[in-house]
């Protein structure tokens, strides 16, 4: 990632996802059912994309051999809520590799353990049912997650409100626009408090 993109990511990471979504005309916001699985989870990083068959995490295991520190593992799991694609063990392996977090259009498990280790995970559901490990799938392709197309390297931002995706090519422009939204809202908030 270029220095300019790194700077834009750092600036975006300091802002609420709502401001970023507003700055993108409310586009790039994932389905509201993809939520943080533990309170206070926040994520910011570049997308490492996975497309896997519903309920199967073989490709996630493969990804852990090639991800880079700062990557957010983004998984099109077909929205399947019946089988957890990751849990505490994969979470710890990912943490050891410097992964920034996970965004999964599917289910996960071990929510408590993932929270205790501080691994940010955003998913559609939580279930104790484990995954299959047969494949097939693909790494590093554009995927659809929560109704949004995400390309490898796009910027992923998540907080209590959910997840937004900033196309890498738009990172600097969106960072500037989101900062302007933040300043405007801070001014409105101050005016409201003054009038109370």
UniProtKB/TrEMBL annotation:
<dbReference type="InterPro" id="IPR005493">
    <property type="entry name" value="RraA/RraA-like"/>
</dbReference>
<keyword id="KW-0479">Metal-binding</keyword>
<keyword id="KW-0460">Magnesium</keyword>
<dbReference type="GO" id="GO:0008948">
    <property type="term" value="F:oxaloacetate decarboxylase activity"/>
</dbReference>
<feature type="binding site">
    <location>
        <position position="109"/>
    </location>
    <ligand>
        <name>substrate</name>
    </ligand>
</feature>
<dbReference type="GO" id="GO:0047443">
    <property type="term" value="F:4-hydroxy-4-methyl-2-oxoglutarate aldolase activity"/>
</dbReference>
<comment type="subunit">
    <text>Homotrimer.</text>
</comment>
<protein>
    <recommendedName>
        <fullName>Putative 4-hydroxy-4-methyl-2-oxoglutarate aldolase</fullName>
        <ecNumber>4.1.1.112</ecNumber>
        <ecNumber>4.1.3.17</ecNumber>
    </recommendedName>
</protein>
<dbReference type="GO" id="GO:0046872">
    <property type="term" value="F:metal ion binding"/>
</dbReference>
<feature type="binding site">
    <location>
        <begin position="87"/>
        <end position="90"/>
    </location>
    <ligand>
        <name>substrate</name>
    </ligand>
</feature>
<dbReference type="InterPro" id="IPR036704">
    <property type="entry name" value="RraA/RraA-like_sf"/>
</dbReference>
<comment type="similarity">
    <text>Belongs to the class II aldolase/RraA-like family.</text>
</comment>
<dbReference type="Pfam" id="PF03737">
    <property type="entry name" value="RraA-like"/>
</dbReference>
<feature type="binding site">
    <location>
        <position position="110"/>
    </location>
    <ligand>
        <name>Mg(2+)</name>
    </ligand>
</feature>
<comment type="function">
    <text>Catalyzes the aldol cleavage of 4-hydroxy-4-methyl-2-oxoglutarate (HMG) into 2 molecules of pyruvate. Also contains a secondary oxaloacetate (OAA) decarboxylase activity due to the common pyruvate enolate transition state formed following C-C bond cleavage in the retro-aldol and decarboxylation reactions.</text>
</comment>
């Amino acid at each position: 990632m270029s220095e300019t993109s790194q700077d834009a990511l750092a600036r975006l990471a300091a802002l609420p996802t709502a401001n970023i979504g507003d700055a993108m005309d409310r586009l790039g916001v994932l389905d509201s059912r993809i939520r943080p699985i533990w309170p206070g989870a926040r994520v910011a990083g570049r997308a490492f994309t996975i497309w896997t068959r519903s309920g199967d995490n073989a490709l996630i295991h493969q990804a852990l051999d090639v991800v880079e520190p700062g990557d957010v593992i983004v998984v099109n799991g077909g929205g399947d809520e019946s089988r957890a694609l990751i849990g505490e063990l994969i979470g710890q392996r990912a943490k050891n590799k410097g992964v920034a977090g996970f965004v999964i259009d599917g289910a996960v498990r071990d929510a408590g353990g993932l929270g205790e280790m501080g691994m940010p995970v955003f998913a559609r559901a939580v279930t104790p049912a484990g995954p299959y490990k047969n494949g097939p799938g693909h790494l590093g392709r554009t995927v659809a997650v929560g109704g949004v197309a995400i390309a490898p390297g796009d910027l992923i931002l998540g907080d209590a409100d959910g997840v937004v995706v900033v196309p890498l090519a738009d990172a600097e422009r969106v960072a500037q626009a989101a900062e302007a939204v933040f300043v405007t809202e801070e001014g409105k908030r101050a005016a409201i408090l003054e009038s109370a």
